[in-house]
Amino acid sequence: MSASASAPDITLSSFFDNWELFRTSTLAGTVAGALLGWLGVYVVLRRMVFLSAALSQAAGLGVALAFFAQIHWGLTGLLASPTLGAAGATLLTTLLLMGGGARGVRRDALLGMAWLLGSAGTLAIGTRIAQEVQDIQSILFGSAVAVLDEDFHQVLALAGVLAALHLWWRRGFLAASFDPEGARVRGLPVFGLDLTLLATMAIAISLCTRVLGALPVFAFSVLPAMAAVRMSPNVNVALGISAVFGAASGFGGYVLAYRYELPVGASQTLLAAALVLVASMVRRLLARVFR
Amino acid sequence: MTLLAAEALQIGYNGRAALPPIDFRVEAGQMWALIGRNGSGKTTLLRTLLGLLPRVGGRLDRGGTRIGYVPQRLEMDLSVPMRSIDLVRGGQDTGYDFLNPLAPFRARAALQRALEDTGAAAFAGRQFATLSEGQKQRVLLARAISMDPALLVLDEPTSAMDAAAEATAFELISTLMTRRNLGVIVVAHHLAVLARRATHLVYLDADCKLVLSGPSEIVAHDPTFVAHYGDLFHGMAIA
Questions:
Q1: What topology is assigned to B1-65+150-239 in CATH?
Q2: Is A120 part of a structural domain of the chain?
Q3: Rounded mean pLDDT of chain A?
Q4: Does residue A109 sit within a domain?
Q5: Range A73-92 average pLDDT
Q6: Which letter does DSSP use for residue B212 in this model?
Q7: What was the pLDDT predicted at A22?
Q8: Average per-residue pLDDT for chain B
Q9: B94 with A186: Cβ contact below 8 A
Q10: Residue B237 has pLDDT above 50, yes or no
């Protein structure tokens, strides 16, 4: 967050005195942190930490393809919509992850492939749509500093829907994630559960990246879960703690960015990383006490 | 009561049969051991019986039998935080039970009974990763029986155990089989202990394209079996 030259003092009380100015962005970070913190437990424990990076690159390729279609093929409307291009590419990547995983290909390798295809494809197509390349960045990556009301409402609505779905289907998602063979033997619809889980991750990561930017979204989907898993007796508790840590990182990161004149995304990321260190220390302390 | 029936069942990968057709029928109160050398097709058969692999040919009738599955311990990801009771509870949902928020409350008695029947109640609150091999196997057994199965399927349940622990584990499996009137299918390498327990054998030999199945005392006296394992059952009372 840039400091204003005319600002007389930058204190926590001045932050809350001007709450109306910061409310939308702070709450957007808080809600996104909670949502991605919850989903991040699956991301971390299923060893897919580069999911958000891979999806962002894939979405970039989708936007580039949409611009290419506008310029070179003369397409208009939905057929050449950059937003739909990003959504389509994200969905295709999710299906690629599912399909490859079902055929025994390692998921981290698939994530790497998605990232590389997205990066190389965007670069290659970028040479044919030179003037629109800057737009790709602005469409895909928002800024945690200034979030629009309508974007916050989208994040809030998505968080509500996904929270309800994840609380309801939690036992199914856990079984499909951590005991897929046993779940198949017991007749659970593992493929459908896995597809739904990945789709919810893809949707959440895509929207939050567009609203807040890539760095805090990557941080929220990895660091709170790392911290929570280190101090939780089971995955259920880890889900709750991770959501709280994510929300705390989103809110606290914004406040710290204001107080110490730091970039918001970086501040939120550093706070989340600090929680990992604290969780590690707490775990060691508890291990000593109860040894 | 027939729990599982295989008629001219052909197993393999990509539509190619790895072994001759297999016939057997598992009834309640029977313990079937799937035996053979590494690469003989034991795991392929087990996964086909469980519905994890498509059959290549023949018939496989599970008739809606509830199956409790104990995987190889190595398949468990120990980096996932979970107490023993969480692991057991996680094995209770079948089909679309996960959509019913009240299901865990209804299944609480079955959970407790499974923990007690396997002797796992004492360490139910401990992290699974910190348990001994014998304790882990008890927890996995508790998980498998917590949804009240009729058929228990175990994939090399004693592979990481010493001889004494292995004997104890099979004692427990036999006790559960009797107490709950279960059918049991178990994949195993070491026959020393299993030979005293298994009522039936399926002997697989992919190299010789041979499958023998039936009561233990008959299969165990087949010359091919004896050539590989020796006269294992000579003078031994079959359970």
A1: Rossmann fold (3.40.50)
A2: no
A3: 89
A4: no
A5: 86
A6: E
A7: 92
A8: 89
A9: yes
A10: no
Identify which has the larger pLDDT, B36 or B145: B145
Instruction: Tell me if B93 and A188 make a contact (CB, 8 A cut-off).
Output: yes
Evaluate whether B196 touches B188 at the Cβ level (below 8 Å).
no
Stronger pLDDT, A83 or A212, i.e. the higher one: A212
Rounded to 5°, the CA angle B135-B139-B142 comes to: 135
Comparing A243 with B40, which gets the higher pLDDT? Answer: A243
**pLDDT over 50 at A4, yes or no:** no
**Of A138-142, A195-199, B40-44, which range is least confident?**
A138-142
Q: Which residue has the tokens 């996680």?
A: B90
In total, how many domains does chain A have? 1
**Does the ipTM exceed 0.90?**
no
Mean pLDDT, residues B42-54: 94
Residue A163 token pair? 């929270």
Which chain A residue has its CA at the smallest distance from B50's CA?
Answer: A185
Q: Do A184 and B127 touch (CB under 8 A)?
A: no
Sequence letter at residue B97: D
Rounded to the nearest angstrom, the minimum Cα separation between B220 and chain A is 30
Cβ-proximal residues to B128 (8 Å cutoff; 6+ apart), any chain: B76, B78, B82, B83, B84, B86, B87, B136, B139
B126 touches chain A (CB under 8 A): no
Residue extents of the structural domains in chain B: 1-65+150-239, 78-148
In a domain, A8, yes or no: yes
Most A CBs within 10 Å, among B98, B152, B154, to test the A interface: B98
Over residues A191-229, the pLDDT tens digits come to: 999 999 999 999 999 889 888 988 999 999 999 999 999
Which residues, including other chains, have CB under 8 Å from residue B135's CB and lie 6 or more apart? B84, B120, B123
Residues of A in contact with B50 (CB under 8 A): 181, 184-185
Provide the token pair at A83: 């937003």
Residues of chain B with C-beta less than 8 angstroms from the C-beta of A182: 69, 71, 91, 143
Domain of residue A274, residue span: 1-47+155-165+203-283
Average pLDDT over residues B68-90: 87
Residues B51, A185: C-beta atoms closer than 8 Å: yes
A89, part of any domain: no
Closest CA in chain B for residue A184: B52
Q: Measured between alpha carbons, how far is residue A69 from residues A75, A133, B83, B84, B174 in Å?
A: 6, 14, 53, 55, 68
